[in-house]
Amino acid sequence: MSDVKILESVQQFIARHHGHFIHGECVATETSERIELVNPATEHVIASIATADQQDVEKAVQSAHNAFSNAWANTSPYERGLKLNKLADLVEQHAEELAQLETLTTGKLINLSRHLEVAQSIIFLRYFAGWATKINGQTMQPSIPSMHGEKYSAYTVRQPVGVVAGIVPWNFSLMIGIWKIGSALTTGCTIVLKPSEFTTLSLLRLAELAIEAGIPAGVINVVTGKGETGQYLIDSALVKKVSFTGSVPTGIAIGQQAMKNDLTRVSLELGGKNAAAILADVNIDEILPNLLQATFVHQGQVCAAPERFFIHQSKYDEFVQKASAVVQQLKIGSPLDEMTMFGPLSNRPHFEKVKHYLDLAQRNNQVITGGNALQTTGYFVEPTLLKVQGIDDPLFLEETFGPVVDVIAFETDEELITMMNHSRFGLTASVWTNDLAKAMRLIPQIEAGSIWVNMHTFLDPAVPFGGVKASGVGREFSDA
Ligand code: NDP
User: Fold this and answer.
1) Average pLDDT over residues 437-461
2) Which homologous superfamily does the CATH classification assign to the domain defined by 8-137+159-269?
3) Which of 174, 202, 303 gets mutated to test ligand 1 (max ligand atoms within 8 A of its CB)?
């Protein structure tokens, strides 16, 4: 097989001189500094984007503030829902274009861009559209008499807070950007998005589609740039809520900054070192396809994916032998080739970070299978299974955010729970077993925001998502 043909519309979009998207149009930046976007599979520069300074950011926030006060907050919920649904229709019509933009900038397999990133973005947009007409306050029955014994009544009103800053990581820019847009717009808020400097194109294109969908100018703005651009955004006095998805260190810094800025509301969706527990009763052949798919999807660059496998010791040798055989057969190659099963990492700094962990594992003789960066063009590494040197091993404790997984034996349930919870993170976990009663006993003991049984890394807009411990504050999706 060969690479899919890049659409004419994608080539034309990439070739543009990109600015920020402010008040419904592409706006030239105040600074001349530009950032090159590199295709991680070929290392070719494919486009350059603008860097927003404080003035650019203020323009975008002012536009969002005006759109909030003059238009969006007063739009009827029915109208808001219609427009979000219209945007979902347009994303569907432009699905291949958006999928190709994502693959070219993130190295995500084209089928994953099509069937997960874009397909899920449409599902989430329609889910959020449905909420617009269903957000209500409550009336309350007084529980005690007032001072003078009169009866009184009380009610709550849900009001939009104003401008939201949506800060998005590079792994699923379109989908995570849409999570932030969907929840802001359905509630009557407006948004300024700051995508990662590595993957901005799909959100710039989405902002144009939003105008086509009839969403007024200024309701969705996009400023591009590095971390500094994100800082200007959080510091803007007109930003009333920060919705951040990214790493723990950046999340903590953003949370502290938001608190200093008169307690700006903040939700933080951060990293994980997620555990999958494989109990003694499972049939390894039955669970392996789903477990390994959930683990190595997008080369492990998925916040919810497992990085630690805990295997009951009676199944450890069988698991290692069979899992290694499957992992070694994953066909590594161009993400634009529909037959490829495993593509490159998304950018050079992340490639260097994952290589650091692989080198550490190689030095300490911990590699079970994989463990190498490929000697080729592009940011390719092998999918890797490792042994760890106890629970204080950095490879056990630190998030690699790559295709690097620890395989650890356990004997008793107590030992399993102690090791699973020995982590600063608490994003997701899974238990693989046919013994549902046992799974139900283990689940409340596991410190994680989402815990699946016989599946992992499955997100549903109707189910709240978010971490405990250092994995985050707040929840996305549902009515949470
Ligand atoms: P980062 O924390 O490095 O960056 C996230 C976003 O924040 C990017 O847009 C980045 O811009 C921006 N940023 C960086 N510094 C600042 C700052 N000081 N102020 C404001 N914004 C800033 O994370 P990554 O992009 O590397 O993403 C990977 C991490 O995200 C992993 O830890 C992963 O687990 C986590 N993640 C969590 C998810 C969840 O739902 N819990 C989902 C997906 C990822 P720039 O890229 O330009 O530096």
Assistant:
1) 97
2) Aldehyde Dehydrogenase; Chain A, domain 1 (3.40.605.10)
3) 303
